[in-house]
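Onboarding guide, step 5: your first structure request.
Type a short instruction followed by the sequence, for example:

Predict the 3D structure of this protein.
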Amino acid sequence: MNPGGAKRWLLAALGAVTLLHLLSGHANRYYLGVSIDIAINVILAVSLNLINGHTGQFSLGHCGFMAVGGYVSAMITIAAQKAGLPPPLAPVAFAGALAAGGAFAALAGVAVGIPSFRLRGDYLAIVTLGFGEIIRVFFQTFEPAGAASGLKGPPQHPWPSRWKRASSYPFVPLPN
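The system replies with structure tokens like these:
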């Protein structure tokens, strides 16, 4: 794909996300939920394309990194709600929880990456698959994260509707 074509696709995706954001207040909840799931899977597919397509490595650890980031951000958000965070500060806490989830996922990546730095091919796939399984077992036995039954009651944010819609969609950065 030529660079001009990639920019056009990126701008078209940004336009579609913006249009979906503007119409989300009037959309059917089912279709809105499906579109959010599609956006999450697109992000995962792009990250797999980066590892498998551009570097030629075969990594199976994406599920583990996603679980670490998701659980950490959800646990921080639930703790902030239980602490009685005022509603005007909820978007700030949400953004902080997302950043903390990303930071913990990055730390997990470093923890896996240092010992497996020189591995290639099948051996890298085995190590990353093992990491994904270790994370799954950890969160199924970690009591503060709800153990096998998972987190209880993710918060219903008392935010204005514009914040709910804005937090529901990924932000697409534009290239330089």
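Each response can be followed by summary notes, for example: Residues 3-167 form one domain.
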